[in-house]
Design a protein that fits this description.
The chain has ten helices and no strands. Helix 3 packs across helix 6, helix 5 crosses helix 6 and helix 6 crosses helix 8. With 242 residues, it is mainly alpha-helical. 81% of the residues lie in helices and 0% in strands.
């Protein structure tokens, strides 16, 4: 069967599965219970996205330039040390990291954003370093032989060849970020975790699912969006998917 036929069959199976799940939830009375929280879902989803957007943007703003610096010859000697320091931040359990951030920054959004930033930074940094290090040396030598400056080599040769791997790191980091934001509720930062944890405390499955389902959908949507950017905006010559 052709790939297009398989894709169409998969989409039909997905839609049928969603319809069947909705019918089952409706029959159990869970769907009406979820929908009665739609006002809270919209409000908390905005908080959720703001926390993820700020911390994710910070991680990209720091991780990509830092990764570029660590692949330059003058900083190569400290690349391992810096990577280990960043890796140390991600080896700490997320709840412990949030608690440590709260002890310094207090409660609310600032410690949550900081903890999410630390958690998100490593995939962005590692993929930036890996992507730039994977650029074939003959390409860089040829650019150097043509008289390009280091800045021109970075912009015209290294980054275009590494962008697919860098985007893969951003894709992974943002999906992890979205899925971890619910923990921010524990320190008063809001987000969809408010419905999840309150639903657990009150033993209300409808409230729990009203927070859990949008969280999962947001993570899938962000992963899909970055995947599409990877597919359509990375040129064919350096895009293994095309």
């Amino acid at each position: 069967m052709r790939a297009g036929g398989l894709g169409g069959l998969a989409r039909f199976a997905f839609v049928a599965g969603v319809f069947a799940l909705g019918a089952w939830l409706q029959a159990r009375g869970t769907l009406p219970s979820i929908l009665q929280h739609r006002g809270d879902v919209i409000y908390l989803a905005r908080q959720h996205l703001v926390l993820a957007a700020i911390s994710g943007a910070m991680a990209i703003a720091v991780g990509v330039p830092l990764g570029i610096l660590l692949t330059r010859e003058r900083f190569a000697s400290v690349a391992g040390i810096v990577t280990q320091i960043v890796n140390l931040g991600t080896t700490i359990p997320t709840l412990a990291l949030i608690a440590l951030a709260m002890s310094v920054l207090g409660i609310g959004a600032p410690p949550a954003v900081f903890a999410l930033f630390v958690l998100t930074l490593l995939p962005v940094l590692l993929n930036t370093v890996a992507g730039l290090n994977a650029v074939p040396a003959p390409l860089v030598d040829a650019a150097r032989g043509m008289g390009m400056t280091p800045g021109q080599i970075l912009r015209r040769v290294e980054l275009p060849n590494a962008v697919f791997v860098i985007l893969a790191g951003i894709r992974t980091a943002l999906a992890i970020n979205i899925g971890t934001v619910p923990l921010a509720f524990l320190i008063g930062a809001g987000g969809l975790g408010e419905l999840i944890f309150t639903g657990i405390d009150l033993m209300e499955p409808g409230m729990l699912l009203a927070g859990a389902i949008p969280t999962a959908l947001l993570a899938v949507a962000v992963d899909f969006l970055i995947g599409q950017i990877q597919f359509w905006f990375v040129p064919r010559g350096v895009n293994p998917l095309r």
